[in-house]
Amino acid sequence: MSGGLTLALDAMGGDHAPAMVVRGANLARQRYPQVRFILYGREPEVLPFLRRARRLKDAVEFVHTDDVVRSEDKPSAALRAGRRSSMRLAVDAVKAGQAQAAVSAGNTGALMAMAKVVLKSVPGVDRPAIASFFPTLRGESVMLDLGANVNCDAQNLVQFAIMGNAFARSVLGLPEPSYALLNVGSEDMKGHETIQDASAILRSLALPGRFQGFVEGDDIAKGTVDVVVTDGFTGNVALKTAEGVATLYTEFLRRAFKSSLFAGLGYLLARPALRKLRKRVDPRRYNGAVFLGLNGIMVKSHGGTDAFGFAHAIGVAVDLARHGFMDTIRNDFEGLAKTSLATQQAAAV
Predict the structure, then answer these.
(1) Is pLDDT at 3 greater than 70 in this prediction?
(2) Contacts of 207 (CB under 8 A, 6+ apart)
(3) Which of 11, 30, 100, 141 sits between 20 and 30 A of 253, alpha carbons compared?
(4) What pLDDT score does 339 carry?
(5) What's the helix, strand, coil split of the chain in %, to 5?
(6) Percentage of the chain lying above the pLDDT 70 cut
């Protein structure tokens, strides 16, 4: 399924680059042996790690560049001065058709700015959105937007729902995904005017799956719906809150097992179960946010991840490319545009 895929990697993006990027690609190659990579970065820093990555020996094209986008760079400055940066060259490779997707753990704002300028948006999409996976009691769900758009109108939320729906069908393999708007209550009368307008529009659309109206914050972890739609401000707060709660829970658990000798013995007995729990909620397994709505696949890895987490971000890019996500999202928006035009023409008669 992954034969013929080429991914462009920003080898200099991330807190632990380039070692993390090279080692992550080496791990990903084990799962996707037919995928090839184009790595962009500083030769003196990248090649020592590349020489030790045995699985990448015949699977990598390396392109040297001196320029790097730093984590503290403003998006506008990165756009102006970073045309030859490792990040920009990875984005350019997708635009030129040299790669089917790009992955970077670098500066999120700079990556989004470059991707929007270079790749442009899919027709029908006003603003790209950031989407990612969440572990839930029912498996996995998709949530968007996670920070790209702080202020959104009803049409933006509707477009996010369409893109999230396509994402769930393409990547999660759900032919009829459920989707809903994140709100302060599940009742129909709850929420401000924007979210009420978005709900009314979504109820009138013939999207695959079922629109379930509104869900609340606790529904995210319950897995009440497959796709949770919200604005970037709320989505980012929800994401960071979930990460903080996971860290808090882990620390409380650690302190509890260290509180006494008997607690320590209890830990030894519970260790197999705790190992399963740690694996289930490991954030590295959900690494890889996607910039939805662009004319190309862009995956943003967490900047502080390790090789294991970066390999999972690569896996997200592979899944999107091999399941034809770009065709799905374009077809969805084209179909809705035709339906809207037909409705307008019928009303004018």
Answers:
(1) no
(2) 161, 162, 165, 179, 332
(3) 141
(4) 62
(5) 50, 15, 30
(6) 95
Q: Write out the E strands in the chain.
A: 6-10, 36-41, 60-64, 101-104, 129-136, 139-144, 178-182, 210-215, 227-229, 289-292, 297-300
Pull the structure tokens for residue 146: 């996670």
Q: Counting Cβ atoms within 10 Å, is residue 251 exposed (0-12), middle (13-18) or buried (19+)?
A: exposed
Whether 296 and 102 have beta carbons less than 8 Å apart is answered as yes
Phi, psi of 30 (to 5 degrees): -65, -40
Report whether pLDDT(87) > 70.
yes
Q: What's the rounded Cα separation, in Å, for the pair 207 and 185?
A: 23
Q: Six-digit token pair at 240?
A: 């960071």
Burial class of 277 by CB neighbour count within 10 A (0 to 12, 13 to 18, 19+): middle
Rounded to two decimals, the pTM is 0.86
The sign of the dihedral angle between the CA atoms of 200, 150, 116, 228 is: negative
Give, as one character, the DSSP assignment of residue 120.
-
User: Nearest 5°: phi and psi at 205?
Assistant: -85, 150
Q: Which residue has the tokens 């996670």?
A: 146
